[in-house]
Write a structure and sequence with these properties.
The protein is an alpha/beta fold and 262 residues long. The chain contains nine helices and seven strands.
Length: 262
């Protein structure tokens, strides 16, 4: 059995810099044709061309705002229309949020996070799963967060909506397993890139140390004493969507360098 993604089609949402980009690259390198989706069409077109040139695979850019349920439905339909099928879905897209206490919540912002992290994401899962059933099954991966385990103060908008997404993902795994559709969650630790740099700068300002020192301190708290890279998350997503993981469903895989050992 060929357990690579050769001849398969993958859809990656939130395919901007970092995890989304690395995931699209990993799937194409493993033989899949890929649809990259995000909100900015110009950046998507550049990303798609770069990955296609490097891998020789078909890589199509499709603009989509995951907060728009109708747009999510169109995205899956357009993927199947253009590439003939869908075998893998990785939802990296997420909503930026203001860090605030529950007692100070901006419920308008919360509604937007709920719309993207739960309603839009799970709409994509449902639409993709229906198409996967038609071709014998497939794999879905949603990106989680350590905030659902660590309960970081002022992160409850993000952690609560992601927790709902994780619960729905695991439930969907039980519902769709008999149809050959596997649903899993990959939860990253501190992941290198611009978002982590911004976070370390914010934390460093409060602690009165340099961002580099704060980053080193955070890395040393993990069992492996390092941060993870976007490529580490991409490899986990690729594994879970491929036939390599044909008997893995309903799990939350922590790729955190041991930031939390459960």
């Amino acid at each position: 059995m060929d357990r690579t993604m050769r001849g398969r089609v993958a859809l990656v949402t939130g395919a901007g810099p970092g995890i989304g980009r690395a995931t699209a690259q990993a799937f194409a390198e493993d033989g899949a044709d890929v649809v990259v989706a995000a909100r900015r069409p110009e950046a998507l077109a550049s990303l798609a061309a770069e990955i296609a040139d490097a891998t020789g695979r078909r890589v199509l850019p499709m603009a989509c705002d995951v907060k728009d349920v109708d747009a999510c439905r169109r995205l899956v339909a357009d993927t199947v229309r253009e590439l003939g099928r869908i075998d893998a879905l990785v939802n990296v897209a997420t909503h930026p949020f203001p860090r605030q206490r529950v007692v100070d919540f901006d419920w308008t912002s919360y509604g937007e996070s709920l719309q993207l992290n739960v309603i839009g994401t799970m709409t994509l899962c449902g639409e993709a799963a229906r198409r996967m059933v038609e071709t014998g099954g497939g794999g879905i991966v949603n990106i989680g967060t350590l905030s659902t385990t660590a309960f970081i103060p002022k992160n409850s908008e993000y952690s609560s909506t992601k927790a709902a997404m994780i619960a729905m993902s695991k439930t969907m795994a039980r519902e769709m397993g008999r149809h050959g559709v596997r649903v899993n969650v990959v939860t990253p630790g501190f992941t290198t890139g611009e978002p982590l740099d911004r976070l370390m700068a914010q934390l460093a300002a409060g602690a009165g140390i340099t961002p580099e020192a704060m980053s080193e301190r955070a890395a040393k708290e993990a069992a492996l004493q390092r941060h993870v890279d976007p490529e580490d998350i991409a490899e986990a997503c690729l594994y879970l969507c491929s036939e390599r993981a044909r008997n893995v469903t309903g799990v939350e895989l922590h790729v955190t360098a041991g930031a939390i050992v459960m």
